[in-house]
Write a structure and sequence with these properties.
This protein is an alpha+beta fold. 31% of the residues lie in helices and 21% in strands. The chain has four helices and five strands. A five-stranded mixed β-sheet has the order 1-2-5-3-4. Strand 3 and strand 4 form a beta hairpin. Helix 2 runs parallel beside helix 3. It is elongated. The chain starts with 12 loop residues before the first strand and ends in a 30-residue tail after the last helix.
């Protein structure tokens, strides 16, 4: 289980999520449902619907879409990796806030780290697996 990182005074909870080479630090607090990422609104930061849905689905699974203000600081990687890191960090922050939410998040796969990483380039090849083109003559 995750370590409890809830501030008793302010009611805020923290969570860290990782995906590919992205790291997201998520802070949630009781509020009106505002989501900001690196100081920008979520619709401005993630123009693709699939990236926004990854974050909103975490809140919708537990039925807390309009109950929390979410502030995310995310670094590294591309948009898909960043949205995946935000999704996991938000799930961990929700578990820190209320341990009753752990089981529904776990059952829907939000608490599991996606361990897939980019395969390294091998010597003598163009990429991880792409070799040089065969020349008959």
């Amino acid at each position: 289980m995750v370590a409890i990182k809830k501030d008793k005074v302010t009611g805020q909870a923290l969570g860290t999520g990782r995906r590919k080479s992205s790291v997201a630090r998520v802070r949630i607090a009781p509020g009106s449902g505002k989501v900001t990422i690196n100081g920008k609104d979520i619709f401005e930061y993630f123009p693709l619907v699939q990236d926004r849905n990854a974050i909103f689905s975490t809140l919708e699974i537990v039925g807390k879409r309009k109950d929390f203000d979410v502030a995310i600081r995310v670094l590294g990687g591309g948009t898909t990796g960043q949205s995946g890191a935000c999704k996991m960090g938000l799930a961990r922050a929700l578990c820190s806030y209320d341990t009753e939410l752990f089981q529904p998040l776990r059952d829907n796969g939000f608490m599991t780290r996606d361990s897939r990483m980019k395969e390294r380039k091998k010597p003598g090849l163009h990429g991880a697996r792409r070799g040089v083109q065969f020349s008959k003559r």
